[in-house]
Write a structure and sequence with these properties.
Serine Threonine Protein Phosphatase 5, Tetratricopeptide repeat, 15% strand, alpha/beta
Length: 318
Amino acid sequence: MTARRMAIVLTCVLALDVTAVATLAAAQNKGKTKAQGKVVDEGGQPLADVVVAAVMDGMEKPFLQTKSNNKGEWTAQNLAAGNWKFYFGGKPGLEETNVAVVVGESGTVTVPEVKLAKPVDHDALIKSEIQKAADLMATKQAGEARKVYEGILAKYPQAQAEFRAQVMGAVAQTYMAENQNQLAVDTLKKATEVDPANTDLQLAYGEILMQAGQKAEAEKVLLGLDITKVKDPFPYMNIIISKINEQKADEALALIGKLIAQFPSENTLLYYRARANLAAKKMPEAKADLEKFVAAAPATARELPDAKKILEQMKDIK
C-alpha cells in the first residue's frame, strides 16, 4: 500500500465515530488474538494519541482503530488469524508509517516498537542517491553504483512501476559496464515486464540481446517497437547488416525507410541504404546515396573509407 493509500486509510479511520468502528468490526470476522505495542518519537520518547489502524490483508477498510496512551502503548483486540498491517499516524509534523504483522489463532502478538519521525523529502533523497550512483559510474565503479540503485529499489518497493523500471534499467547499465551481458539481459527483461510501455528500455533490451548473441530474440523485440517512438536508430544497424548479408535487401530497405522517416538528418542511414541497394542490384540508387553520404559525413565517420572505395568502383555508373 502506498503512502497516499496509507493516508487515505488513516483519514477514513479518523472520520469514523465509535459506532461506525463497532459496526465495521462486526462486519469482519472477529478472532481471539490481541496485538499490542508502543509508539515513540525520534528521541525514543512515548507518543500519546497516535492513531493505530488495523487492516487485514485483502480488506480495503480498517478492522478497528485505537489510539496510544500517555505511555505510547496501544492494544488491539479480537484479531482473526492472518496477515495484518498496522498503520500509525495522526500526529502533526510526524510521518505516517506501517508495520506488517502475522497474527495467530489466539494469544498476544507484540508488535516491534514503532518510531514516528519528521517527514523525509524522499524525492530529494532519491535524487541524491541517483547522483551518487552516476558519479560512481563516471569513475568506473559499476559494482558500487549497482549497490546504490539496488538500495533504492529495496527502500521503495511500492514506488510507481515507471520509476522502478528505470532504476532497473540503470542496474542493467552497471552490468553492461562490467561486460556481464547476460545479467544485463536478465535485468532489462524484468524492467520491460515492469513497464512494457517504456520504449527506451525496450530498445536497450533489444540492443543488449544482440550484443549477447541472441539475434532472433533481439530482432523480435526491436522490430516489434513503434519506430515513431524510438529515439535512437543505431540499435537497428546490426539488424540491417544481418539482412543485407542474408540477401534480404528488400527487408533491409523497408526498415531503413522507416528509420530515415524518423531520423531524416541521420546521414549514416544513407550509407546503409546504399549497401542495401547494392545488394538489391539497384546501382544508380546506391551511388546517389553514397554520394550524399560522403558529401555530408565528417572525416571521422567509420563508414567513410568504405563509401569512398565503393564510389571509386562505381565511377562509370550513371
